[in-house]
Each structure stands twice: as C-alpha cells, then as structure tokens.
Amino acid sequence: QRAVDAGLIPRFGHVDATTGGESHRYSLSLDAWSRHDGRGWAALAYAIDYHLDLISNFTYALDQDNGDQFEQYDSRRVYGGHFEYDMPASLTSLDGALRVGAELRLDDIEPVALYRTRARERFDTIRRDDVRQTQYAVYLSHDQRWTGWLRTEAGLRFDHLDFSVDSDLPANSGDETDSIVGPKLTVVLGPWAETEFFLNAGRGFHTNDARGTTIRVDPTDGSTPVQPVDPIVPAIGYEVGFRTAAVPKAQFSAALWNLDIDSELLFVGDGGITEPSRATRRYGVELGAYWTPLESMIVDADYSWSHARFTESDPAGDFIPGAVETVVSVGLSIQRETGWFGGARWRYFGPAPLIEDNSVRSNSTSTVNAQAGYRFSPRLSVMASVFNLFDAEANDISYFYESQLPGESQPVADIHFHPAEPRTLRVAA
C-alpha cells in the first residue's frame, strides 16, 4: 500500500516484474448409473493431471543480496472414484430410504517443492518432497418420514488417510495415518402454511499438509526442531432455521449456525504459505430471499453475518485475520427463451481484521456486475458483460505483515493487497 500511496507503482503495478507462472489441469471422468423399482446405484471414476509452477515475492527485499523471490512447484496425478447405492428402507408405513457409499482418492505428487529464485532462476532449494496421500471413506445415511410433519436423515461417515513423504531432508521423511468418524443428523419439521423448520448437526474435518505431519526439523536450516501437526483436524457444526413459500411468488430462508474447528489455517505472509494455528469458533446468521414478480424476472438477495474468534487465549489477540464479518449480494435477472435478456448483481464484502488484535482492518469491497444480450434461438445468442461497472477501487483480498521495498533500510509493517479488476467489458456469442 505504501508503494502505491507514494506513487512508486500504480495500483495495478508490481514491485517485482519477474513474478508469475503457469499452471494446467487436465481431467478425465467416467459416470455410470442404473435405477429400477426405486433402487439404484451410481459410480464415478476420474483421473487428473495437475501442474503448478508459481514465482512469488511477498516481502521483496528482506534479503538485500538475493531478494525474497521464491518458486512453488507442484506436479501431481490424482486418481479416484466413488460408488453409491440406495434403496427403499422404511421403519414405518411412510417413505424411507437407505443410502450407502464408498470413496477413494490417491494424490501422487512428484515433486512438491519450494525454491529460492532470482528473476525466476533457482539458486537454492528450501525443500523438495515426493508425497503420496490416499483417502478412503465409507458412509451410510437413512432418510425417514415419521409423520406428515416430521422427517429425519441420520448419517455416519468414516474417513481414513495415509500420508507418505519422501523428503530431500531425511529427518522430514516418514509415514502417517489418521482416521475420523463423522456422525450427521438432519431434522425437518413441517410444512405448515408452506413453511418448514430444520435442524442440522454434524462432525467434519479438514486435513493439514502431508509434509507437516512428518516434519521434524526446519527445512530452512536443517536443524531447528519443529513440532509435526495432526493429519486430520475435526470440526463440529450446527444449524437451525426455516424456509417458507407462504408469500406468493417468493421464497425466504433464515438460519443460525455455529462452527467449532480444532485448528484454523492461517496465511503466513513472509513465507507465502498457510500454517495451523489455534482452535476457533464461528457463529452467525444467514438470510435469503428469492422473488419472481414476473414470469421472466428473478430478484434474489442474500445476507450473511458471522462472528469469528480464536477460543484459546494468546496475548496477540483473539480475532481471526481475514475473517469477513458481513457479506451481502443482491441480483436482478431477466431471462427469456428468445429476445432480450440481462441482469445485474451487487456484491458487498465488509471489513475484516488483518491481525489478531483487530488494530488493522481491511476496507470494505463493493462491486456491481451487469450483463445484457439477445437470444436469437435457444442455441444462438450474443451477450456483453461489464465487470466492476462503476470502476470501484476495491480489493479482492488484503493482508498485513512486514515487507521491505528496494531502497528501504528496514522492514515495514503494511497492508498488502490484490486489487479487484477494473471496469472490464467482455463479449461472448
């Protein structure tokens, strides 16, 4: 931000002109299914080839001799699939169904690496690893209507992960496994007067980087002890709310929710990576409205507010950096089989804390996108879209950390941002 304010670079400029990179993702999938007499199965198999070669520089010149540029390299193949079978299975005289399934995913990564670079030329390897990560899962759920106004869906899921890391630093090589059981429950009451109430509860998880589960020493110096992280981080969520179509031509919904996560992943600016941190609790409210005043016109609106905090005490503070508190979206759409069509959407992202003590916050972001077109037939149309219609100087994301610009004598704590695209016109047919 200070470089832009001082006129050293334009808002869409750069400090390091040699950052950038390339990526590709090719995938092939096969679906198969069958259904007869209320019973059926579905299967999916897929294969993915993924490559990322990204040159970044987040702190610019903390290293006055070589600069702070680094390269993230990831080359992997992913194989997987799932199979699901469902059949009628009622515990009463009313409808009921049982669903069982299994999933498999294998990530074969050769390699995932981090290099130090100057003008895209490697001069040092921070770490280089070959990783195999396999995830197995089985699940079952039962959907039962008990009365005309009560329905439940109860489920249970088991996930198991195997991590194998072959590191260029032998101390950081190894194997890890972890498993988790996730129960889930949905209760639906109603409908009464086109209105129903619902309660959802369940246990889920996120995984940490496989390399973090086997790490023992800091790869930057090869000797400083590092505590490995758990492969699986549990999360428990609850939600209660209602949805209604009691108002003609309209639908409304509202929900109160809570989410507890045993460890949050946070972005580390000087390393360009995410790392595990303290446990967190988030709760909030979500509101939605959907209105069709005319057959060809749709108006929709969504509002979300959340309260996000670390639950473990720390002198740094309990705010979660980057956790946006308020999000609003309002849209208007006109669609016809032939003739003119179009619409517009306003999106608002409120301020967010950028450090744990909330002393630095991001600015809010407000943008409008619009489109208009003409449909000659169901298969032929032309359309023009304008992104950021009012050319707002908004940021897609902001961070706060120390960096050192070329010519500066010492690091400075400042806001670093990625600007939202300026007013942009795109035409498609």
Structure overview:
The chain is mostly beta strands. It has helices at residues 2-5, 210-214, and strands at 20-36, 39-56, 70-88, 96-118, 121-145, 150-167, 174-192, 195-207, 232-244, 250-261, 265-268, 273-276, 280-294, 297-310, 326-334, 339-349, 365-377, 380-387, 395-403, 412-419, 424-428. The chain has a 17-stranded antiparallel beta sheet. Strands 11-12 form a two-stranded antiparallel ribbon. A hairpin with an 8-residue loop joins strand 19 and strand 20 (412-419).
The rounded Rg comes to 26 Å
Mean pLDDT: 95
Question: Percent of residues in helical segments?
Answer: under 10%
Q: What is the β-strand count?
A: 21
- Low-pLDDT regions: none
Helix count from the secondary structure assignment: 2
Largest sheet: 17 strands, antiparallel
Q: What general form does the structure show? A: globular
Question: What proportion strand?
Answer: over 45%
What is the distance, rounded to the nearest whole angstrom, between the alpha carbons of the first and last residues? 39 Å
Q: Topology as H/E string?
A: HEEEEEEEEHEEEEEEEEEEEEE
